[in-house]
Specification:
The protein is an alpha/beta fold and about 425 residues long. It folds into 2 domains: about 45-375, Alpha-Beta Barrel (TIM Barrel); about 380-415. It has 13 helices and 14 strands. The chain has helices spanning about 25-45, 85-90, 100-110, 130-140, 165-175, 185-200, 215-225, 285-295, 320-335, 345-355, 355-360, 370-380, 385-415, and strands at about 60-70, 95, 95-100, 115-120, 145-150, 205-210, 230, 250-255, 255-260, 265, 270-275, 300-305, 340, 365-370. The strands form 3 sheets. Strands 1, 4, 5, 6, 7, 8, 9, 12 and 13 form a 9-stranded mixed β-sheet that branches. It has a 3-stranded mixed β-sheet with strand order 11-10-14. Strands 2-3 form a two-stranded antiparallel ribbon. The N and C termini lie far apart (about 55 Å). Residues about 1-25 and about 45-50 have low confidence and may be disordered.
Length: about 425
């Protein structure tokens, strides 16, 4: 039986060191990178792996399953310009079945795992307090972690009528925003949110994630003053915090520990496109390959992103069985792997304070194979015009190549 080499000390074949995300500069180096990622993907698909159960005692990769619990405050064709009910985007109720936070917890608990639920701390500006508290209390009672998520635009519902989109836009532009705002205003907004999370969950938050990843250096100062030690907003090289913290590496600085979302490079014909690890994108094979590559490249912490509505959205269909199955298979893979573990933010903070070296890792940025990108578009052909266009373009290119080969062969033999 083939056993994958999990040696964390060697230089990974497919990873690129921080901070470079640019495509290889030479034609040969680009070809090698694409070829390497594709060969790795082939191994992941074709070769079975055997795991040593005893090694489970000392996993080297910690996976944090994080769920943003929120609704939409904007306008969609299906929902209009009003936030949908909690039963929709958060609980995911559809024909008497709940596909939102309850199902996410069910799937985690099936394997004795727990997740971190980043709850929008300003939901009380629009929804009834009792509704919010019921959702949060169930999460806490089932042993999961509740932390601070900031979609501060919801605060504008306190000052604007629901149908007054212009007022809400003005409020968001002039007052209720984080990145770029003053320390005093950010402190006011964040303290309000932290107290809401404490009131609903019974525990003061230890972790923060900005809505749409919004956070800057002033946000870090505010979190430090408020005593919130973990920050989870860094999601790519273009982020406002990317010049202060490396991606894919847990880093502590001045009392704040940045825990970035797992970032990888998606191979395309002409460039490497940065993406963060989201349960709603990619196939199970991509997720599996990314985790195995994380181990080989010396990464020690991987943060997965999902939403309370990842399995159920009225505008995209409910239930989304593809996402449900993908998540269930991913959890099964992590659970069976001897070198992986899932932890919550509370567990992470406790263990990190005792041994930070267990979570800091290499900071390398893995690559998703071009082969897997094509496979994803093939599997999801009917779900998006982008996937359909991508596959049709490849079919057309193959036909052109075949025609060219036939033409050349004919010319050679007719001479």
């Amino acid at each position: 039986m083939f056993r994958l080499n999990r040696s964390a000390g060697r230089t990974p074949f497919l990873a690129a060191p921080f901070p470079s995300l640019a495509p290889p500069r030479t034609r040969n180096s680009r070809l090698k990178a694409h070829l390497g990622a594709t060969l790795w993907a082939g191994l992941a698909l074709l070769l079975p792996c055997s795991f040593d159960a005893e090694a489970k005692e000392q996993p080297t990769l910690s996976v944090l399953v994080t769920i943003d619990v929120e609704t939409s405050s904007g306008c969609t064709k299906a929902e209009g310009c009003f936030p949908p009910p909690i039963s929709d985007r958060i609980l995911g109720e559809h024909e008497g079945v709940f596909y939102g936070t309850p199902l996410i917890m069910d799937l985690l608990e099936k394997r004795d795992m727990r997740g971190t639920f980043f709850v929008n701390a300003y939901l009380d500006s629009f929804y009834k307090e009792d509704e919010i508290r019921a959702v949060v209390e169930e999460i806490v009672q089932r042993g999961h972690s509740v932390q601070f998520h900031a979609h501060e635009e919801f605060r504008c519902f306190r000052y604007c009528k629901e149908e007054d989109a212009a007022c809400r836009k003005s409020c968001l532009k002039n007052d209720s925003y984080l990145g770029g705002n003053s320390l005093d205003k950010q402190l006011k907004i964040l303290e309000e949110g932290a107290r809401n999370i404490e009131r609903w969950s019974g525990t003061y938050p230890v972790a923060f994630r900005g809505g749409s990843w919004d956070a800057d250096r002033v946000t870090l100062d505010a979190l430090r003053i408020l005593g919130i030690p973990l920050e989870f907003s860094l999601s790519g090289f273009e982020h406002k915090l990317a010049d202060q913290f490396p991606v894919n590496r847990v880093t502590a600085q001045d009392g704040i520990t940045e825990v970035p979302v797992y970032l990888y490079r998606q191979s395309t014909p002409f460039k490497f496109k940065p993406r963060y690890w989201d349960i709603e994108s990619g196939t199970f094979l991509e997720h599996k390959a990314l985790l195995q590559e994380a181990l080989d490249s010396g990464l020690k912490t991987a943060v997965l992103v999902m939403h309370s509505f990842s399995f159920c959205r009225r505008d995209l269909g409910c239930p989304n069985q593809t996402n449900i199955d993908r998540f269930d298979r991913l959890l099964a893979f992590i659970d069976a792997h001897p070198m992986m573990q899932t932890i919550t933010t509370d567990q992470f903070l406790s263990q990190y304070r005792q041994a930070p070296e267990k979570f800091e890792g290499s900071g390398y940025v893995p690559s998703a194979s071009y082969f897997l990108v094509v496979y994803r578009s093939f599997v999801q052909f009917g779900e998006s015009w982008k996937h359909a266009t991508f596959i049709c373009a490849h079919v057309f290119a193959v036909l052109i190549i075949l025609v060219a080969i036939a033409y050349l062969v004919r010319r050679v033999y007719l001479k």
